[in-house]
Amino acid sequence: MDVIPLLARLGVASGELECGGLPVRSPIDAEIIARLAPHTPAHAAVALDRAQQAFFTWRDVPPPRRGEVVRQYGNLLRRHKADLGELVSIEAGKIRQEGLGEVQEMIDICDFAVGLSRQLHGLTIASERPGHRMMEQWHPAGVVGVVSAFNFPAAVWAWNAALAWVCGDSVVWKPSPRTPLTALACAALFDSLRSEFDELPQGLLEVLVGGNELATLLADDRRVTVLSATGSTAMGKALAPRVAARLGRSILELGGNNAAIVCPSADLTLAERAILFAAAGTAGQRCTSLRRLIVHESIADALLERLRTVWGRVTVGNPLDPATLVGPLIDAAAGAKMDRTLAQARASGGTVQGGEAVGVPGCEGACYRRPALVEMPEQTALVKEETFAPILYVLRYRTLDEAIALHNDVPQGLASSIFTRDLTESERFLSATGSDCGIANVNIGPSGAEIGGAFGGEKDTGGGRESGSDAWKAYMRRATCTINYSGALPLAQGIRFGL
Ligand code: UN1
Q1: Whole-model pTM over 0.95
Q2: For 374-404, what is each residue's pLDDT tens digit?
Q3: 119 Cα to the center of ligand 1, angstroms
Q4: Is pLDDT of 16 > 90?
Q5: For the sheet containing 351-353, what is the strand order?
Q6: Among 175, 224, 209, 166, which Cα is nearest to 48's?
Q7: Ligand 1 in contact with 148 (CB < 6 A)?
Q8: Residue nearest to atom 5 of ligand 1 (CA)
Q9: 27 Cα: distance to centroid of ligand 1 (angstroms)
Q10: Share of the chain above pLDDT 70, in %
Q11: Of 120, 163, 466, 478, whose CB neighbour count within 10 A is largest?
Q12: How far apart are CA 378 and CA 392, in angstroms?
């Protein structure tokens, strides 16, 4: 696949693409599409320096003006949606619809951030002292480090970057070494704004291409005020203590083991469609992918019959082919992990449909798997693990209490859903004693979240929140300010002090 013309249209110079020691492969056919020169710690030091200098300038630019830059970036994304979406498909293996959806998500967060740029509101607070006023101000935080994963090579970065920029921060981005081209394209588009905005400092966006050592470097560097990392729980557990050791801030969006409870009153036609997209979409490689289905015993056979049919029919193939619903896994190691997991599921009493390798003409070296539907006798240790592949475990329940207990009895806590038309069941699921996840949905699957809400989850998912709602506050520092206009000096807490 020749990605050079596509990258050229997105503004990436071909000189960067062919000479380095880091091969970039497309999961579509496992062929090398570029060779980049990875950045060294010395490059990273320069990039961090530039980012810090950029912050010193940028924090002084009025937020609505910062928003104008993000607005123009969103417009660039609109213009380049088809090309950038295709690049995401080629590099991450997503089907075209999902590649485009990812760019749409970037556009949406830019729009959100533009609005936010005029709404970085603080509170006014009633003072206990006469002639005093209290207020909160939100100030830019500093350099925001973003570590992103292969499965959302652009959108998750954009959630962070668009907010960070309007909040007055600069961004140093370490993309997954599997998807650096998308990052270079996003950066080239951003760079092209420079001609329109004099105040856009060099260093507002720095991209570091390379492996884990660069993420470690960001975690350790005091200049990185906030480190936002998306990826596996193991990655989060490696980085977070390093950030904490220097008392830095981190935003973690780690693994999920997302479930859906299907109740007796559920609309099964709707549930079937939602389950298919959530479990098999993106070849099961979203943090929010549906991995566990907890079905009431009275409808389990009926639902399973429907699911077996759709699982048998789902089209697996080249993600650039418009008829394909399920593209490749990211690499052979992911396929081997899926195979091992299914063998273990069988060994512990699971009944497996699907999961076999699919040969795609012209893509023989790549890793295509049919999505697997696995009926399990119980929620074993294997089911509690996140396997980043299209495997859907099916469990049965009798009472809603039992279903919720099963639902919450995993280490992860990202996204969740319930299918029901019974108000008492959905309210219970959404209540304090229901789902313990950061995202809880009714009559839609756990994946495909909109940017307007805060995104993230609890427990092994890391606790961070990104994207919408008030997630922006994590990218700023809060100053609590008390102003005395009384001419006297009453002390708080009733203290009398003085001679
Ligand atoms: C991820 O899988 O890391 O909810 C992010 C979704 C997307 C984001 C997923 N909006 O599927």
Answers
A1: yes
A2: 999 999 999 999 999 999 999 999 999 999 9
A3: 25
A4: no
A5: 351-353, 372-375, 391-397, 290-296, 258-262, 415-419, 439-442
A6: 224
A7: no
A8: 287
A9: 19
A10: 100
A11: 163
A12: 14
pLDDT at 499: 86
Closest-lying ligand 1 atom to the alpha carbon of residue 230: 3
Residue 14: predicted pLDDT: 87
Best substitution site from 287, 291, 441 to test ligand 1's pocket, by max atoms within 8 Å of Cβ? 287
Ligand 1 mutation pick, 253, 288, 291, 450, max ligand atoms within 8 A of CB: 288
Q: Is 253 a catalytic residue?
A: yes
Beta bridge mates, 249? 226
- Which residue puts its alpha carbon closest to atom 10 of ligand 1? 449
- DSSP helix, strand, coil percent of the chain (3-state; round to 5): 40, 20, 40
| Per-residue pLDDT reduced to its tens digit, 117-159 | 999 999 999 999 999 999 999 999 999 999 999 999 999 999 9
Indicate which residue of 86, 105, 253, 386 is catalytic: 253
Which residue's structure tokens are 């997209």? 277
What crossing angle do the helices spanning 400-408 and 423-430 adopt, rounded to 10°?
Answer: 30
Q: Supply the DSSP symbol for 265.
A: T
Question: What is the residue type of 64?
Answer: P
More confident residue, 223 or 194: 223
Q: Residue 274 has which token pair?
A: 């939602």
Q: Please determine, for residue 86, whether its predicted confidence score (pLDDT) is greater than 90.
A: yes
**What is the mean predicted confidence (pLDDT) over 334-347?**
98
Rounded mean pLDDT of the chain? 97
Residues 444, 274 contacting (CB under 8 angstroms)? yes
Residue 321 has pLDDT above 90, yes or no: yes
For residue 439, the ligand 1 atom closest to its alpha carbon is: 4
Residue nearest to ligand 1 atom 6, measured at CA: 448
- Token pair belonging to 283: 């070849």
The protein residue with its alpha carbon nearest to ligand 1, atom 1, reads 287
Q: In which residue are the tokens 């295709």 written?
A: 86
